[in-house]
């Protein structure tokens, strides 16, 4: 079995089989919801905020609002959502993001490249976890020494509670999640209250966010911004090695951007998006009712275009569907891309690598490797 397949199955053994078995572009799956696997129909749902919302039964709001409050972006819709996104915009402008990525990652990626070139066997997952934590830590105002593997494991444990068949957390899970996030936001609150432009929470205050909005944003960045990258970069490396493209990319930097896009397409780190039907509508031939849950299987739509191939780069036709579409399009995409580019360049500086060992993570929300050890050939 292909490793990409193993990674998906290890994360969601039951749901992944059910989703993969769907033979129609839109299908009502008992106990799960209305499943959409066609890219055009899926994009249509994302763009139609009149009938499909992130707030409501079965959508993201049911999961995250009890833990992080109502101002999280990913559990909001309408004018409030647009206002908060507009306020946060400057934090994700290309110049701010590039400076943030360079400030947090320059030393880490330089050391990674050096060790690989010297022949050391390196666990890409551990390296990316460190890099993602450094960057998110800076974004949310958490001191570097707090960003250890233990904290990362506790954050992953929260997302690990998420199962497609269970749209809500249990009260005990809510309590655990609140404790972990409370620990993180304790630092962000101090930075917010101090204000100024030296820390991101301080800057959020300058940008006009209330304390609740700023802490919601901090929580959202931690929950969605670390695991997606810790999933993606090692999976990209594995795809590059397994497909034989790694040395070609190392020799020809013009292939790196298409390869990153193709990697995002075939892996789709955030494999599904959820919406709640808020007004009777139709998705293709299937009529949907208010209160129904829609599962947008982005990974299936993306993979339908064929295997990874940076030379044809069919990903370029997808308008970055792996980051969503419409009003909820990934706010952190520029930051994610900045980090992906920096770490990928460091890895490619080794010229060519082999995979020494790897293991897929079990029972996680975002499919990933738990280890991926590589070494220069
Ligand atoms: C490879 C990495 C990433 C992928 C594949 C990814 C994917 C996505 C997707 C698909 C959505 C839309 C979900 C929906 O419409 O239901 C989203 C939203 C979001 N992402 Fe990302 N993401 C990544 C990295 C990041 C990072 C690094 C951050 C922040 C630091 C971030 C912050 C956000 C936020 C705040 C939203 C919510 C936006 C809104 O609802 O308005 N993401 N992401």
From TrEMBL:
Origin: domain of life: Bacteria
SUPFAM superfamilies assigned to the protein according to its UniProt record, in alphabetical order: Cytochrome P450
Protein name: Cytochrome P450
Phylogenetic lineage: Bacteria, Bacillati, Actinomycetota, Actinomycetes, Micrococcales
A GO molecular-function annotation: monooxygenase activity
CDD domains: cytochrome_P450
Homology family: Belongs to the cytochrome P450 family.
